[in-house]
Specification:
Layout: H1 2-8, H2 17-32, H3 39-45, H4 52-59, H5 65-76
Length: about 80
């Protein structure tokens, strides 16, 4: 779980800390779940703070996905001068 939070720190300036915590719970639940992925299944596999209602709130929060993906791409994958 700490590795997920460390990767998400690059998007911390554009999302609130609540959304960032919810996102880390959702990602952790998605990575650890097996079988059919549902909000209930994600909430069962998350750690403390990842209730069904928390997962529901995160899915209903407005996010600027294009900006989030661009920041993650430039901070983790893109290297200047490489093809």
């Amino acid at each position: 779980m700490p590795e997920i939070v460390a990767l998400l720190q690059s998007i911390a300036p554009i999302v609130s800390s609540t959304v960032l915590n919810q996102m880390s719970q959702v990602i952790y639940g998605l990575l650890i779940s097996n079988g059919r992925i549902t909000m209930l299944g994600i909430s069962r596999w998350t750690e403390r703070g990842g209730s069904y209602r928390t997962i529901q709130r995160w899915y209903h929060s407005p996010l600027i996905w294009l900006q989030i993906m661009w920041i993650l791409f430039t901070s983790q994958l893109w290297k200047a001068g490489h093809e």
